[in-house]
Amino acid sequence: MLEIRNVSKRYGTAQVLTDVNFDVIPGRMTGFVGGNGAGKTTTMRIILGVLASDGGTITLGGTKLTPEDRRRFGYMPEERGLYPKMKVEEQLIYLARLHGLSSAAAKKNAGALLEQLGLTERSSSTVESLSLGNQQRAQIAAALVHDPEVLILDEPFSGLDPLAVDVVVSVLKDRAVSGAPVLFSSHQLDIVERLCDDLVIIANGSIRANGSRESLRAAHSTLRYELISSGDAGWLRAVPGVSVVDFDGGYALFDVDTEATAQAVLRDAIGRGDVATFSPQHPSLAQIFKEVIR
Amino acid sequence: MTTTTTTTTRPPAPSIAQSTWLVAEREITVRLRSKAFLISTGILLLLVLASIVIGGFAAQNAASEKTPVAVVGTAGDAIPSGAALDITEASSVDEASELVRDGTVDAAIVPDSSTPLGVGIIADTSAPSGLIGQLSISPPVTLLDENATNPLITYFVALGFGLVFFMSAMTFGSVIAQNVVEEKQTRVVEILMSAIPVHALMAGKVLGNSILAFGQIAVIAALSIIGLTITGQTDLLSGLGTPIIWFVAFFAIGFVLLAALFAATGSMVSRMEDIGSTTTPVTMMIMLPYFAVIFFNENPTVMAIMSYVPFSAPVGMPVRLFLGTAAWWEPILSLVILALTTVACIWVGSRIYQNSLLKMGARVKWGEALKS
Questions:
Q1: Count of the separate structural domains present in chain B
Q2: pTM of the predicted protein model
Q3: How far apart are CA A114 and CA A148, in angstroms?
Q4: Looking at CA atoms only, how far is residue A11 from chain B in angstroms?
Q5: Do B1 and A80 touch (CB under 8 A)?
Q6: pLDDT tens across B103-121, in order?
Q7: How confident is the model over B217-229, as pLDDT tens digits?
Q8: CB–CB of A48 and B190 under 8 A?
Q9: Which among A284, A282, A288 is positioned nearest to A226, based on CA atoms?
Q10: Domain ABC transporter, which positions (chain A) (predicted)?
Q11: Does the beta carbon of B53 lie under 8 angstroms from any beta carbon of chain A?
């Protein structure tokens, strides 16, 4: 498990990170969400050792990270970075070797990844000649080519079309399933919602929420229910403990004061006619996000 | 929950030396594949070769060229033996005059009892000065310093060392600065920094480019020595051989110094367009010695100072060695000073590099770049 403990960072007079604490659990995808300038990239750079923190520790499996450990990390920086005039495959081999792979192992990994990401045909093209989407795939390959044990990806999905997103998602899930902790940041909340097992929300340099997706949802759910019935749902307004949020003929979205009120409403609704849908509403990630960063 | 304990199956991480060499290797292969580099090196080598060959021909022509003259009767007695003249015998003054007029000869030497020499010269529009010199009687000259070098040759030797140093340092130096900015601009540097220590990255860059620059200089030096030998300019070679070897030694260390400074100053900017704003001081340190050696190559005091100042020593010391004004221990002392300065510059340079690599956007301020 990768543990980030009490990490702080200050640039001049600006405090960019304050006591950042969270875990990245092996085998799970952890989404890292926050607005621009919230401190995502700074946190990731500190985890990678590219940037020094002013305080706090980062441990992997209980021991403090060393540069040696960090070589086994895979990193994808936010703004894309590869040598524009170097051939894709050559570049991957070079990066793998910098991470300590033998020349043969580097070649083998690079070939396999290019195959997996559908870039085999472009392996001897220069990076600058690739389309944006393909450059992005090459970038992902660069983060994975040395078989990293931990993945830190800054905005891995920005600039990808939906098909490419699926390809990348499947590659990342493979790594997570094989036991690697995967931390990725994204602005695209819908992708994070679909992908992540755990979630870390950061705003103004401090962690606002952190935990599994389900627990966060449960913590922020507001006893809201949706009802779709055959008759007019106007009667709901008169039920004590119910406040209607939205209403249209047989459709109603409403909050209740207790779980028991909801059950009473359901029994009542069935008595009045056919009920097509009666379901508790979970807040979307976007709603949770807005709520916690407020 | 599993913890990652697969460390035992991993190959050991490469050492600093291996990382440095990997970076250096990439710098070298990328450069050797660049057409611009190959073409500019080719042009530089051609220029060196051409100047040697042309110099050789000029020397030979100067030696073999004889002035064609017509000589009438006893006037030939006035010509000193060994004069560089191509003599045509003419039977009379009129015939000799005719030969001058139609251009067969440059001038005619005719008997003329009215002068102390006993001969006169007939020429078409003006008398060839070389001829007059050969027929004149000169007062004996005693040279106090027989080894003094022709100032024109001194100038060209100084210019040659200066130009080669200037060109190599500028081209390779700016390539280093550009590479650093490219890595910063494309953010590839973040991946590199997460894989290997920053000082290995900088050392690899400096090493790779120094090897290339040194290789280029060594080829130029070898080409000069071989060229001078083949074209028979052995006099010049015997004077130049030692200075050239010292030049290569000074260049090898001096370039490492410049490379470190170029890498450091390049890392302070984020865009190619801004390179000039921080690398200018380093560029100046290359240009000033170049101009100084052109203007002051005959001023022993300036040259003596230049031969010890680390930035100009690679040019100043070889010129002084060529002139024979440096004692045997002087290049060694100067080389030690240069080496110590280089170590200091690498230390300062790597600090600037480390502090600046991740700072994007505006140029990094000197104070910020230098802070520990």
A1: 2
A2: 0.77
A3: 16
A4: 11
A5: no
A6: 788 888 888 877 777 788 8
A7: 889 888 888 888 8
A8: yes
A9: A282
A10: 2-229
A11: no
